[in-house]
Write a structure and sequence with these properties.
The complex is a heterotrimer of chains A (about 300), B (about 325) and C (about 325).
Chain A lengths: L1 H28 L3 H6 L5 H10 L6 H13 L13 H36 L4 H15 L2 H15 L11 H31 L2 H8 L4 H26 L6 H6 L5 H11 L2 H29 L1 H5 L5
Helix pairs in contact in A: 1-13, 5-6, 5-8, 5-13, 6-8, 7-8, 8-10, 9-10, 10-13, 12-13
Chain B lengths: L5 E13 L6 E14 L4 E5 L6 H8 L7 E6 L2 E2 L6 H8 L1 E4 L3 H4 L6 H11 L5 H14 L4 H4 L8 H13 L5 E5 L7 H18 L2 E6 L2 H7 L2 E6 L2 E7 H4 L6 H9 L48 E4 L2 E3 L8 H5 L1
Parallel strand pairs in B: 3-8, 3-9, 6-7, 7-8
Antiparallel strand pairs in B: 1-2, 1-4, 4-5, 9-10, 10-12, 11-12
Chain C lengths: L4 E10 L2 E11 L4 E5 L6 H8 L7 E9 L2 E2 L5 H7 L4 E4 L13 H12 L5 H13 L5 H4 L9 H13 L5 E5 L7 H18 L2 E6 L2 H7 L2 E6 L2 E7 H6 L4 H8 L49 E4 L2 E3 L4 H13 L1
Parallel strand pairs in C: 3-8, 3-9, 6-7, 7-8
Antiparallel strand pairs in C: 1-2, 1-4, 4-5, 9-10, 10-12, 11-12
Helix pairs in contact in C: 3-4, 3-6, 4-6, 6-7
Classes of the chains: A mainly alpha (about 300), B alpha/beta (about 325), C alpha/beta (about 325).
Chain lengths: ~300, ~325, ~325
Amino acid sequence: MGRYFAIRIGRAALTIVLVVTFAFVVLRLSGDPALMILGPEAPPEVLAAFRKAWGLDDPIWFQYLDYFGAIAKGELGRSMRDGRPAIELVLERIPATLALTLPAFAFKVALGIPAGIYAALHRGSGIDRAVMTTAVAGFTVPSFVLALVLVLVFAVQLGWLPSGGQDSWRHAILPIATLSLGGAAVLARFTRSAMLEVLGQPYIRTASAKGVPWRKVVTSHALPNAAIPTITILGFMVGTLIAGAVVVESVFAWPGVGRLLVVAVANRDLAVVQCILLLVAMTMVTSNLIVDFLYGFLDPRLRTKGAHA
Amino acid sequence: MSAPLVEVSAISRTYSMRSGMFGRAAAVHAVDGVSLTIARGQTLGLVGESGSGKSTTGRIVLGLEPPDSGEVRFDGKPMAAPGTAAWRAQRARMQMIFQDPLGALDRRLPVATQIREPLDIHGVGTPSMREDRVRELLRAVELTPAHGARYPGALSGGQRQRIVLARALATKPDFLVCDEPVSALDVSIQAQVVNLLADLQAQLGLTLLFISHDLRVVRQISNVVAVMYLGRIVEIGSADDLFARPEHPYTQALVSASPAPGRRSASRIVLSGDPPNPAARPQGCAFHPRCPRAIARCASEVPALEAVASDRQVACHLVSGAATRDAA
Amino acid sequence: MAPLVSIAGLSVAFSGVPVLRGVDLALGKGEAVGLVGESGSGKSVTWLAALGLLPRHAQVTGSVRLDGRELLGAPAGELDRVRGGRIAMIFQDPASALNPVLTIRKQLCEALALHRDLSGNAVKAEARRLLDLVGIPDAARRLEAYPHEFSGGQIQRIMIAMALAGNPDLLIADEPTTALDATIQAQILELLSTVRRELGMAMVLISHDLGVVAENCDRVAVMYAGRIVEEAPSNQLFADPVHPYAQGLIGALPPLDGPRRRLTAIPGTVPDPAHMPDGCAFAPRCALAAEPCGLAVPSLAPIANDRTVACIRAEASRRALLGIAAE
């Protein structure tokens, strides 16, 4: 048991190191931050001073180690744009993002899972087909298209809702709807196929043959087993709570972490980008760890495999 | 009699297996000191339950995996090192067929193409000669060119196993290892394939190693039958009378457990205990914890395979040596 | 004596394709009946249909009566009381027959709670007793284990314990030993015959293995392409099969001792349920087939006291068999 989790935690740490390294390599090698921020007309001595101030004239491996050492000490650097600590900039955007992603997550679960279960239990019925058609549409349409369609209908044509900004709860409706619909579609399809798979298993027939009423066969035999694969998708969705709204925040001009990321990338504001990436990697990795723990909890085969009597 | 085609001397194979995700690695003695000879044109049947090592033995004999110790000689020569030209030449003379023909065939290709494949790989003859050979092979397994144009999914289980057989025969092998070739087939189809295999063997002078858990099928097709238990041969003898007069207590239990129409189970020997676990092989005779006749010696000393008659060898303390006569 | 279960004209079709084509079968109290046939012959479908265990889209017609009460179309609540209570069923695949995420205790006690007036500690004590009865050692501790911690043979013992939980009058065992090794198969068959004897329970043993059925049943019905083609006491069927298909099945079985002979294989393959031949479904593979065989489906007709055969060439077939025996 301990070994199982030690391996997983080690893997999680390695993932974070790789993400940090990747961010460093891509950003530092794809353009000169001094030129980006000061502009090409800046005098050479100003550029040199900027580079010196941010350590950009040190050898690249030195910068890497330096940066890594700082992260290990919890120092995530300062924004090259306004000199404030990057972590502060990011943290102050998180509530805005969560204001969209948390309700969206709740809607995805509340819509997607029951729809998937219902469709599986009434396979081939009209409702099953309707749910599945919606689901396919839901995840084949890219979120920016969906966002624009919603804006066109509800903001432009009907004028019921604002098309962007963060002034009232009404501003959050369209972004949340955009985020929820796609996720609910993925979840519905996934839950349906997990349920169908489980319903076809011999142990379901065994339960029926024992005289267990159908409703109870579904709740106490099918659902716990179908939950195991569904947890994976849920874990992935939890992992996107922080930065899963990049597109939607951009379309609706919502000042969250996603929008900050877009701006920071455009400006080569390394510390901010790296800080966000690190945060995203941490949430992803943490949610994966939680999924692994849940697996161990839900599936006795993972818990006790070694202890075969 | 000429020299045997296949000589297996004292092969062993041990796997390191971790039981589950958290368990310690355990040594699994899949095959332990197995020696066999198969005469040209003859069939050796290998029977045993799961975990007996019969399939691993087949794979080692065919050179699909190397033994940890011991040696396999084919046509008087040791198996060539894998990947060499000599090895490829040797491998073309030996083929294998498995239980699941659908798994052995590619669902996306017509079966005739798949029969031709080994001919293409080994560069046998011209393309038109290969076409002729495919037709000839289809005829040999009692199918028509029309069957050859179909995809595996459009054939029945018995027909698919015939296709697999035709493909195995394409390179005109001398030696065929059949691992549970009819176990997935219904009785009536099983009989068709067994008959076909016997006919082809007679026509082509094939030598067979026939692996199965089914005593009846093994007896039907074999000249000599070896019974395996937890990696070792416990009894070997002529197919005609091995099951009629089994000597080893395990063989006796197997025969007794094999149901026969028209017999009620009054005299059945039912072994107690769980099926054998290769990862936890008992000391001494591996069968002793389940053996109804075990004595103290069985728990400590591994019985050697010894001749008890001209055509019978048994690995049992109670059968070989002095105890034999009393028991018999 | 009134039969325990009587099946009449039972037919099943999946999206219009018939897989069961009029099965008649009666079963007395405490009787052991075997059902043999190859894959697709309908032997499992017969009992899944009888107990309402087929998927919703299966079209089931005919009649299945338990002590005279019709089961087909009975309300769900009544069927749930019959399933596991009066008629229990065990299946082939030990690896997936039990719910992998529930302990043995939960699954066993579920059956007890449904069909027995037991509560609290009595349920657990009964669960322990049942595990003891089917030969699972250390029952108290093993109740807390999960299915993957047992071997295939042990799972089948647990399935039998679960089946016995409701004190059923009839146990349907659908290929209970097919996935098991020979020596374990012998253990399970012995266990089945012991509990049957002790509890006076009737049993239907479904198997593709003639030997298994012959050794464990009083009476055998042979199925082919969705119908029963011959029914007879076990010893008579195997000594003197009348239907050419039954003869073929027995001839295709290699002997374990005595002289080896070429197997008498049945030519061809089982017909596709979507394209059944007219008349007798076996006629295209039958050595004795004559013109009238293709005209009408032969009905199951008595040929002796307790034997029935569905073959218009039964007499010819019998003569042919006697001819073979005389050789």
